[in-house]
Write a structure and sequence with these properties.
The structure is a single chain. The protein has 2 domains: 236 residues, Aldolase class I (TIM Barrel); 55 residues, Alpha-Beta Plaits, CATH 3.30.70.20. It contains 11 helices and 13 strands. A 9-stranded mixed beta sheet has the order 7-1-2-8-9-10-11-12-13. Strands 3-6 form a two-stranded antiparallel ribbon. Strands 4-5 form a two-stranded antiparallel sheet. A hairpin with a 2-residue loop joins strand 4 and strand 5.
Length: 297
């Protein structure tokens, strides 16, 4: 499995310096606030950007499953019959249909990453994100190993939810782990993500024991985990570890809801995006309990 859904250049929020972030498809968690719903499935997805549709019928003409019905009343996309052949996206002249995800070997991904080498300087490099890189551990490890062979700084953004064996495959070739702390209450974590925390915390402790550099990344969602007890628990967790260099607060944004709609999903839960004052208060709340630097991501 080696499915990539985006290669984002000039990233400045996914590790130190200027970076190229490679987004891998497939994630075992189902966070109700997911910012990248196109990453959940390991298979390619098809976006339908309704606002871009010009009603030309090119998609209907080439779709072997008859998924697209274009009439004077509009464009009906019957996704249940779609086999993701991508013929409609190739035919669409307006960009209304877009495939998310393609199979790429590690060397092809690395060639794209190395195009940005002049911008990395001393601190930048490559970051793997997702989805969940542990879900594609063999591919992620091969890509990280190849990047290290080129002298690049490497980072992995992970939820920590995955087998220890998968994490160990990535560890030798990863300089920095950007480790998500989504919720510190066990029951709420199960409600919000579909999983418990035991495996996640076990993997976090493993990284710390193995002297891996860690940044804790904390998505904060109004109405879910913007609680004083959660902020205190994040600080307390950081205090138990020896290799956490920073804590990053990641405020909720609603781009995931828009993308979920364009993917035909109806289960995305919208939340209110916080203002700057709320984010500042969250940073202060975590900072009160720890000497680890806390900042907005």
């Amino acid at each position: 499995m080696n499915t990539v859904f985006d290669i984002q250049r000039f990233s400045i929020h996914d590790g130190p310096g200027i970076r190229t972030t490679v987004f891998l498809k497939g994630c075992p968690l189902h966070c109700i606030w997911c910012h990248n719903p196109e990453s959940l499935s390991a298979e390619p997805d098809l976006f339908y950007h309704e606002k871009n549709c010009i009603g030309c019928g090119a998609c209907a003409a080439v779709c072997p499953q008859g998924c697209h019905i274009v009439t004077d009343a509009g464009h009906l996309f019957e996704r249940e019959n779609c086999v993701h052949c991508a013929k409609c996206a190739e035919a669409c002249p307006a960009g209304a249909l877009e495939v998310s995800g393609q199979q790429m070997p590690a060397d092809a991904v690395l060639r794209e990453v190395l195009k940005d080498r002049p911008f990395y300087k001393e601190t930048g490099g490559m970051t793997l994100s997702g989805g969940e890189p542990l879900y594609q551990a063999d591919f992620a490890a091969a890509l990280l190993k190849a990047a290290k062979a080129e002298g690049l700084h490497t980072a992995v953004e992970t939820s920590g939810f995955g087998p220890e064996a998968a994490l160990r495959k990535l560890m030798p070739y990863t300089d920095l782990f950007l480790f998500d702390i989504k919720e510190t209450d066990e029951a709420r974590h199960r409600t919000y993500t579909g999983s418990g925390r035991e495996e996640i915390l076990r993997n976090l402790c493993l990284l710390d024991r193995e002297n891996k550099e860690i940044i804790l990344r904390c998505p904060v969602i109004p109405g879910c985990n913007d609680r004083e007890d959660h902020f205190r628990a994040v600080a307390a967790l950081a205090n138990t570890l020896h290799h956490v260099k920073e804590i990053h607060i990641e405020p909720y944004h609603d781009l995931g809801v828009i993308k979920a709609k364009d993917l035909g999903r109806k289960d995305a839960a919208p939340f209110s995006a916080p203002d700057a004052a709320a984010v500042d208060s969250w940073i202060r709340a975590v900072s009160k309990g720890t000497n680890v630097p806390v900042k907005r991501s």
